[in-house]
Each structure stands twice: as structure tokens, then as C-alpha cells.
Design a protein that fits this description.
4 helices, mainly alpha, 110 residues
Length: 110
């Protein structure tokens, strides 16, 4: 998990929730990836009910596709308001290995 060290550090003094914008279904492994995410979070001490995976039709896993920033912004806005969130941790403007979905997540969160 890309953010494990950050989540472990934050968990010491904060409530932590995880929102993933895609199940990672590019190769038909979406349900496997979803279960991996939940299990990884549980290992880090984050309860399953605090882990959400978004399945928006415009945000399907594809490392060579740019996602719509407005769609991401609206999903994040609703999630933030619903859960009274005050901090977001996301990818930087280069993503992991230049993954366009990661870069899109950064752009949508700006």
C-alpha cells in the first residue's frame, strides 16, 4: 500500500478513513483488489467500515487514461462533507510511475 507509513503515523493521533477512487479492475481483478485494500487497512489498524471504494463509471482503472477532475472533485466534496473530513492525503502531480489515474486524483483534489 502506497500510503502505509503515512497512515500509520496519522493513526497515532487522528481518526483515519480511506477512500479509493477505483477498485483497480483494469484486468478484471476489481473484487480481488478491493479485498486486498480492506485487508491491508485492517493490518494497519483501520476498521473495514472506514474503507470505501468508489465505483464511478467515469473512474475505471486504466493507467493510460486521464480521469475527469470535476467528477473526482464532486466525489471528494460529498465524501468530505458527509464524514466531516479536514485533511486529504493523495498522490502528487506525478502519480506512482506516472500512472494517469493517480495524477488525476491529485488534480481532482486540488
Amino acid at each position: 500500500m502506497f500510503f502505509a507509513p503515512t497512515l500509520l503515523s496519522l493513526k497515532e493521533k487522528n481518526d483515519v478513513m480511506v477512500l479509493c477512487l477505483s477498485s483497480g479492475n483494469e484486468k478484471g481483478l476489481g473484487e480481488v483488489r478491493r479485498k486486498e485494500l480492506v485487508k491491508s487497512c485492517q493490518v494497519l489498524g483501520i476498521d473495514e467500515f472506514l474503507v470505501d471504494v468508489e465505483e464511478h463509471p467515469s473512474l475505471q482503472d486504466n493507467p493510460s487514461e486521464i480521469w475527469n477532475s470535476d467528477v473526482i472533485f464532486n466525489i471528494l466534496k460529498e465524501y468530505i462533507e458527509k464524514n466531516s473530513i479536514d485533511t486529504i492525503i493523495t498522490f502528487d502531480d506525478r502519480g506512482i510511475s506516472g500512472h494517469l489515474n493517480h495524477i488525476s486524483a491529485f488534480n481532482g483534489a486540488k
